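Please fill in the sequence for the structure shown.

STRUCTURE ENCODING:
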């Protein structure tokens, strides 16, 4: 769909073909799976039943091999294998940080590369998911922003990151399926009874990897709907957070149609500084952005909006900035919390991180006003997996190339 403004997403195909002419079922809705089964020759009733079974095996059990789908008739499994696949992104590189954070460089069927990061904590495990290869925007402190937008990721490539993470973490439920019910049309249903749902390792998802999720709305929505589906991955919307740099026209739809938690990359409280570090501000200014936050569906005490604020030395980190941030949150009547992110460096970055004392003082000022403002501990910096460090191209652009890309993106903002 068209989004107002010059920065429009590059559209992606809907049904990716892989492994010869076989259709990859990952990322399709349950109805769409039924649809491709009908196209392949099943009648509507059989297609609906098979779609339900396949969905459960794919998203609840993580199965990629039709032969393992034991409640589907034995004779039907090769028929499925000949026509369909259940794909995964290819892992190009996997790294583990000294703090346990894991980063994967992934490749799509067309060779495009993107990254995902898993951050384990004592009480949760968070997967940071990418929505685009590159980004059309060029926030000056962000490594991804130095890339051109190559393309949007398709829903299957977005949900595929969650599937692959669960593969790699070894956390699919084991055993065969009890309670899912035998297949009434099947003579050789091998339905057994030792199925166990393990405790979860991957508990939370943040759309905070490469790209601007609200410039790839439809595919991100499709992927998150699958992630939230109760018969599959079944992750609660309260455990999913979508971060936007401030694509105002899409924020209400994100709340209404996806309904996950919202994080907004505010990063500055004056037009002058935000224009500089988040150039999208020249298109959608702070006033418009905060109004959209106030109108975000469901934004109340129980569902606070998170403002992300990167701490850049001598740029946006003064006591006055902190006071102005509190004033703005109050003026717009926002139920918000602030997440202070120490700037994560990358090769060629022109900023420095504020000192720990400055970050603490900034945080204290906001806390004193009754607004929560924790400092996000940088994770995975040693493997370039921390916020804003993701970038897929191995090549290192020169300063002149970086400036040219920035200029192009600026021109696109209009
Ligand atoms: N494009 C979306 C989501 C991805 S970025 C967005 O901009 O909101 C996730 C968060 O990391 C954003 O708040 C982003 O501004 C921040 N970030 C980017 N580069 C960073 C860096 N070098 N250090 C710390 N945070 C950074
Ligand atoms: Fe894109 Fe977000 Fe990076 Fe800005 S911070 S360049 S919107 S990925």
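FILLED IN BY: designer on duty
SEQUENCE:
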């Amino acid at each position: 769909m068209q989004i107002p403004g010059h920065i429009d997403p590059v559209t992606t195909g809907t049904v990716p073909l892989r492994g010869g002419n076989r259709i990859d079922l990952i990322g399709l809705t349950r109805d769409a799976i039924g649809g491709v089964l009908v196209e392949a020759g099943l009648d509507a009733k059989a297609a609906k039943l098979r779609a339900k079974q396949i969905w459960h095996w794919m998203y609840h059990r993580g199965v990629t091999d039709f032969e393992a789908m034991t409640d589907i008739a034995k004779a039907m499994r090769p028929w499925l294998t000949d026509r369909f696949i259940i794909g995964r992104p290819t892992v190009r590189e996997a790294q583990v940080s000294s703090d346990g954070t894991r980063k994967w460089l992934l490749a799509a069927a067309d060779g495009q590369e993107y990254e995902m990061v898993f951050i384990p904590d004592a009480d949760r495990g968070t997967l940071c998911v990418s929505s685009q290869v590159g980004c059309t925007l060029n926030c000056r402190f962000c490594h991804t922003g130095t890339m051109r937008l190559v393309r949007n990721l398709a829903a299957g490539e977005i949900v595929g990151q969650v599937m692959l993470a669960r593969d790699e973490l070894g956390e699919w439920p084991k055993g065969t399926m009890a309670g899912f019910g035998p297949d009434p049309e099947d003579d050789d249903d091998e339905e057994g009874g030792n199925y166990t749902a393990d405790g979860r390792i991957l508990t939370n998802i943040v759309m905070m990897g490469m790209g601007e999720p609200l410039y790839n709305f439809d595919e991100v929505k499709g992927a998150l709907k699958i992630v939230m589906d109760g018969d599959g991955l079944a992750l609660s919307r309260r455990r999913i957070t979508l971060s936007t740099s401030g694509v105002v026209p899409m924020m209400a739809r994100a709340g209404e149609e996806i309904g996950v938690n919202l994080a907004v990359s505010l990063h500055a409280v004056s037009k002058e500084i935000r224009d500089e570090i988040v150039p999208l501000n020249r298109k959608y200014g702070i006033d418009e952005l905060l109004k959209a936050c106030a109108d975000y569906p469901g934004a109340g005490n129980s569902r606070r909006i998170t403002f992300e604020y990167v701490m850049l030395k001598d740029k946006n980190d003064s006591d006055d900035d902190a006071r102005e941030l509190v004033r703005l949150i109050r003026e717009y009547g926002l139920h918000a919390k602030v997440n202070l992110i120490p700037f994560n460096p990358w090769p060629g970055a022109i900023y420095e991180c504020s000192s720990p004392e400055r970050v603490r003082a900034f945080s204290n000022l906001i806390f004193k006003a009754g607004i929560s403002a924790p400092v996000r501990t940088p994770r995975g910096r040693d493997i370039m997996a921390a916020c804003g460090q993701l970038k897929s191209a191995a090549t290192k652009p020169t300063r002149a190339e970086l400036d040219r890309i920035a200029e192009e993106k600026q021109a696109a903002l209009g």
